[in-house]
Design brief:
It is a single chain. The chain is 56% helix and 7% strand. It has 333 residues and is mainly alpha-helical. Strands 1-2-3 form a three-stranded parallel β-sheet. The chain has a two-stranded parallel ribbon with strand order 4-5. Helix 4 packs across helix 13 and helix 5 runs parallel beside helix 14. The structure holds tryptophan. The site of tryptophan has 13 residues, from strand 1, helix 8 and strand 4.
Length: 333
Amino acid sequence: MEQEQKKKILSLIQPTNTPTIGNYFGAMCNWIKMQEEFDCTYGIADLHSLTVRQDPVKLRAQIKESYALLIASGLDPERSTLFVQSHNPNHSELAWLLNCYTQFGELSRMTQFKDKSAKHPDNINAGLFTYPVLMAADILLYQADMVPVGVDQMQHLELARNIVQRFNGVYGDVFTMPEGYLTKATAKVMSLQDPTKKMSKSDENVNASVSVLDDRDTIIRKFKRAVTDSETEVCAREGKDGIINLMSIYGGATGKSFEEIEAEFKGRGYGDFKLAVGEAVADKLAPMQEEYKRLSADRSYIETCMKQGAEKAYKVSRKTLQKVQKKVGFVVF
Ligand code: TRP
């Protein structure tokens, strides 16, 4: 009963590359918090990741790693539904149907499509173009009330809302109208080498980003090398993007406010501060890394979770798909 009254949350992440501390303080921490209050479904968007060429061996490893990392970071596969998108064929099926209710013009306006096709001019495939439709299928299959996303996905969420309005307008109340929930990051995390750019897991400069699986020494070394400025004062003043970034990360790892951080490092210089940030991040990640190590040694546990997650996801989403199939006029048994 209680389960039914809770609002439904849904979100997926792509399994490309190991998450950075930016993903951790952004998406992952929020996902974990939300399971206290909501009925959550979280997934690994492996279908989406195929829109860019992937090495099959690496992709398979990344899917397992991402899944295990979510559990290691605190997602409870009993309480929430944790699944791999390609394990549930309903996603591809609904995506096809929704393709027929989405306009070429709408998809042409998606900024991510324009950016990605500029970045990969040799592989502007149809999947890259219809990517937001698959994302809409992900959301609508579970009748999600709320979808935590970063700003970069808001336009896709708007498109999903337009599809709902259009589809429900023709066939009645089929899909729940999803609300975007802009995740307030515990810490806004920028590149350590160029603090005006978001930290990205695909950055070519290895010193620019910190992965959640980097070991303690690596983490500390990367923070020591972080770009700052030619002053000496740890404070959040305009123009001090590097220091502000480090303060934000330190705040995320320790829960301290900017005022507290400024007081703590008054008169102490950048060297001390950078070391403290590195140590705080390493300490914060240590329990998850331990748990990840333990889970990686137990393959059958992860496999069992994946199978159970897929079953749960299939059951819920099949209901929606069949409803849609009936509405559009298919013969449904
Ligand atoms: N496109 C999202 C991203 O790259 C991942 C994603 C796929 C997603 N399906 C989703 C996010 C459904 C929210 C809801 O970040």
